[in-house]
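Form 7-S
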Amino acid sequence: MIIITGATGNLGGRIVARLLERVPAAAIGVSVRDEAKATGLTAKGVRVREGDFTRPATLEKSLEGADQVLVVSAAIRGGGAFEANSAAIDAAVAAGASRILYTSHQAASATSLFPPQRVHAATEEYLAQQGIPFVALRNGFYANALGIHLDSALSTGKITIPEDGPVSWTAHEDLAEVAAVALTEPDAISGTSPPLTASAALDLGDVARVLTRLTERTITRVTIGDDEWKAAAIARGLPPMVADFSLGMFQAARRGEFSVVNPTLETTIAHPPLPVEHTLQQLLGRRDRSAAGQNRAVPHRPNR
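Output:
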């Protein structure tokens, strides 16, 4: 049985959907924190069991009978992410899995300026120490992370940030597909993969120009100093820890950590990766639908 963790998340859910195109539902199990959110998978015949990386005892049953386990990296900011990832790997080994896959990152490095990359590097090392076949999928930077800039860009016409650098923004759809290929075609990828990236790397000035084209509104990129940006972010209500986290991403980008572009993703999925325009259009559409829904929720009151 192939078991996917985090299967109700944005990436995990897409991986299961692509896997269902390749193998029978009865051959798939998922480990999720909330079974109620996975009723749609149950209806399709997928085995659904509760499992939480931060409660390792729950993983024994959720990974029972696993031949392969895909560990979707823990979405934990700050301390505890490595411990959660390693607990899932331990549980996969204990379940007798013959192969473990892990969703890592293109910039995984013990010396990265962006903390999640240090966690990915440590997890990759831990996975390699287990003595069984493994795959570390070094995913390109998720393009939907650009959503954090949309409200400001559309309300002010500016993306005001510290100096950054090119990033190979990569679509979840393509990363889900490459994971499904890796799970069902063991010879496609083994060990630590090359960076699995889109075909181009863009900085946020480039992204501003794409948004200008998509929205037919002028969006410009404004560069400010790190300290000024952090102070403004905290003044807007961002917790200092989160501000430092985000600042680390800008610092890593301008050092070139995310600028790599590699053909492995395209070669493995046998078609060109989706461009950043695709994800930006999706994000803009969701924003518009959300705004429309809020407007409908407010009853019309005639003037009195």
